[in-house]
């Protein structure tokens, strides 16, 4: 890993940040009771998997034609399943939180992901825990505590669901890093959708209904934005250590706070702004660090 790869990885993460924010907006609209045709969280996850699988399959065949079979072949199916199952749990918890909590609140809790990712990456990938990375992760955790203020304000039960999702996402990101050195981003995304589809089908089997009206638009947008986000994430993780890539995800918080303010009249308090500033400082500290070879490469 070198400085050029780190810069390219940062650019891919910018794309991921924007796409994840669009996913949040579309996901909330798809499950909003105000739409008159709201989907359940499980239905949203199911149709997202269906549309995403169609899209990624089309992309693979358009780009690789007769060689498409080589793209969708993998010798690491158990690793793919572990990655995709943990991601499935994470996304369900994430959409659940978006339906009940302010967007910035959900994203703030989710930003414990780099903390758990650092622990998983150290254990699973043998990545180096340098002093600057430890400081960066610590600042991120402090920023989240400033925003949530546990013990000073009541934390809703949905917040704990989102926190559980953050742990699941961290495991997923770590396994993505392992897979990125073996399979292509398209391969990872293909198996994500094809493996998550039966999991989602199990959840909606006894409560199935088709999206109505504009719900189709929001579900489709959710699938396309999420697919783009995960492609960008996989590319970023293939170029740099997970503990360098993931702190950049903190940039989503100020972005989604502004979106929530203008689209949903969600207030932005000083604690959120201060906590976001602390996390951003930690993020920049991590990015300025000279790349260090990890034991996994």
UniProtKB/TrEMBL annotation:
InterPro entries: EamA_dom (IPR000620), EmrE-like (IPR037185). Keywords: Membrane, Transmembrane, Transmembrane helix. It is found in: Membrane. This is EamA domain-containing protein. It comes from Oleispira antarctica RB-8. The keyword Zinc does not apply. The chain crosses the membrane at residues 6-26, 38-62, 104-125, 134-152, 158-176, 188-208, 214-232. Pfam families: EamA. SUPFAM superfamilies: Multidrug resistance efflux transporter EmrE.
